[in-house]
Amino acid sequence: MSKRATPGVPSVGNDPRDSITESREPEEKTWFRDLDEAVIEADRCVQCGSCMAACPSDSIGIEPETGRPTLVRMCTGCSRCWDFCPRSGLRYERLNELEGESPDAAYAASADDDHEGQDGGAVTALLAGLLAAGEIDGAVVVSDGDDPLAGEATLATSPEELFESAGSTYSQTMQLGQVDDLVAESDLVDPDIALVGTPCVIQGAAALDRLQYDDELASVSLTVSLVCTRSFAADRLRSLLVGNGVDMDDVDSLEVVGGALTARDADGHRLLTKDVEAFDAAALRGCAECADAVGKAADISAGNVGSPDGKTTLLARTDDGTAAIEAAMEALDIDELDSTDALDAFADWNRRQAEATIPRERDSEASLTVTYTEHREAYDGTGREPEPLNPARVHQYEEWC
Ligand SMILES: Cc1cc2nc3c(=O)[nH]c(=O)nc-3n(C[C@H](O)[C@H](O)[C@H](O)COP(=O)(O)OP(=O)(O)OC[C@H]3O[C@@H](n4cnc5c(N)ncnc54)[C@H](O)[C@@H]3O)c2cc1C
Ligand code: SF4
Ligand code: SF4
């Protein structure tokens, strides 16, 4: 994802929406309340923050109690929150068709020193290498602060901040909606920023990059997607860990590898290892509809599947991704992978699981936008259909929509 040279000018063609999607019917004006009913109240939101990032009037914020999107001022019914939501209006498989499905190169990589990370620490080392080489000015990552279960989107602009944010946080932060504010609140001027996110976050970023006419995410020049098949609601995960006898005061980190979830203390001692399916009730329900485990719209994908222990699989998917890995080579201990069969099989398995759950037909050649009407036709009567608005919020809509 190359940085847009001129804020306000879309990066693909003169009229990207017309070039890659059919026009929407004008009567398909979609409001945030439609998104609320179809995604948030229906418990399908994956807290990616794409709706918040896409809203041109900054009308969407984060509800503190739930960490989900909520209306904070007048909704104009411009439809963008709907259009960019991967659980409703964004036909994200179309992005993958535009990018091509196969990676340009595949590596097993780790940091070239003993810095910590989730697997090989390659993502953190890559970012630190790019920072040292002057290729980026910072990276929006997710730190776990004081709570290993609840992440916090953060802009790291030094190697120290990157190393502090190493490791995986298995919850979502509405990250995409915070990128521009984090950059605006920093001292950086017209920076080049890397964005590390789960595939749903990167789908929103890629769609905004292609379709926006204004300057949302204009500073993002590189996207790194973490391989992901599910994320968790921190409060529900906490309850299940406690129910399994874990003292949460002792937990420093979690890892999900090979189908097992492990909790460790600050010395790395194992507190619990259990089949990750035992924590299904804490998984975000919308993740079951996600068929993009490797983040195909990203410049680089990173995961543990397909590499030996202590290594990270890095897939370069675009010219920008290839150039970034080359620019950071000195920070990495890196070998080309002969085969991506293991990761391909993993992604395929995940896609089949998702396809069995998603009520709408997946079609990488159809319009990038799934209209509200099309969504209703596919979802009504399925158990994933829109739910009535939360009565506590109806007054907001009476005032703001
Ligand atoms: C929810 C989730 C599920 C995952 N599931 C799988 C899986 O099933 N299979 C698999 O192969 N890999 C999975 N991963 C990826 C894996 O855990 C590692 O992140 C990846 O292998 C890179 O390892 P590393 O040591 O190179 O990264 P590190 O050097 O530790 O760097 C990781 C970077 O990601 C950032 N980060 C951490 N959590 C998040 C988050 N939630 N959102 C955005 N950025 C974040 C960190 O701040 C850091 O910058 C998952 C990751 C997450 C967050
Ligand atoms: S899934 Fe993402 S875009 Fe959709 S409502 Fe939730 S946060 Fe917004
Ligand atoms: S499984 Fe998909 S929807 Fe859920 S957090 Fe991961 S990338 Fe997002």
Automatic annotation (TrEMBL):
All residue ranges annotated as the 4Fe-4S ferredoxin-type domain in the record: 36-65, 67-95
A Pfam entry, by short name: FrhB_FdhB_C
Organism phylogeny: Archaea, Methanobacteriati, Methanobacteriota, Stenosarchaea group, Halobacteria
GO molecular function: oxidoreductase activity, acting on CH or CH2 groups, with an iron-sulfur protein as acceptor
PROSITE patterns: 4FE4S_FER_1, 4FE4S_FER_2
The name this protein goes by in its record: Homolog to coenzyme F420 hydrogenase
Biased composition regions of type Basic and acidic residues, renumbered to the chain: 15-28
Source species, domain of life: Archaea
Entries under InterPro entries matching the protein: 4Fe4S_Fe-S-bd, 4Fe4S_Fe_S_CS, Co_F420_Hydgase/DH_bsu_N, FRHB/FDHB/HCAR-like, FrhB_FdhB_C
Region named Disordered: 1-28, 379-401
